[in-house]
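Cast an eye over this sequence plus tokens and walk me through the fold:

***
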Amino acid sequence: MDDYRAVNRASWDERVPAHAASPDYMLQKFAEDPKFLSQVVQFDVPRLGDITGLRGVHLQCHIGTDTVSLARLGARMSGLDFSGPAVAQAQSFAESLGHEIDFHQADVYDAVEVLGAAQYDLVFTGIGAIGWLPSIERWAAVVAGLLKPGGRLFIREGHPMLWSLDVSQTSGEIVLATPYFETEAPQIWDEGGTYVETDAEFSHNVTHEWNHGLGEIFTALQSAGLDVTHLEEHDSAPWMPLAGHMTRDEQGEWRLTDQPERLPATYTLQARRR
């Protein structure tokens, strides 16, 4: 089971330069406009509220665009990711913009040991993060361990219903393809490319991933000592997950072209540490 880390890390390490160079991550816009925010964070600004002065940590932060965005909203941020190249890119990116953000390379399950217990007012996790983890219970325990009493978890993530769907290679129709619930064995994928615009080609294309149902997430958080205070399901996602079936709006969000109300594509969840 531990092999999933090495397999997934090889994939993420290799894609860091392509992601940093891609127009989809918009690093140049961050440099040009000191008020610019990542699309993921901008979407949830009304839900985040005032985070000025909060001590925050962004788990599975990748190259740090959401982390920098939260710092621009006033939080004192740290970032953690298991990819060394991603952490180096994130640190360089933040420093180039004048932000004092400390980034750490570590597995998310080791975050409390690396960052310290009960140190944070805010734990943030963005799109496409928890699906790389085999146990949502262990993740919830990490979140609880990092937060001060009364501290808040804030996560926007792909909906487990969406993660269970795919587009059939034969019919072109949307099909129910993979488990909705967490399974012991991972879903193993062998796919080239990546989720951003790039001409780069990659050699590390195998990944191990897991889905986690909403009920499993709720139960894990509750058992770890957090109370869910907000759950909002959205019919849109900031990337195109179902090729040929989605339309992009003016804000850059993708939703089903036909009757988008049929599919919860993402959700925003908040919880408080008891």
About this structure: The CA atoms of residues 231 and 269 lie 5 Å apart. The chain has a mean pLDDT of 97.
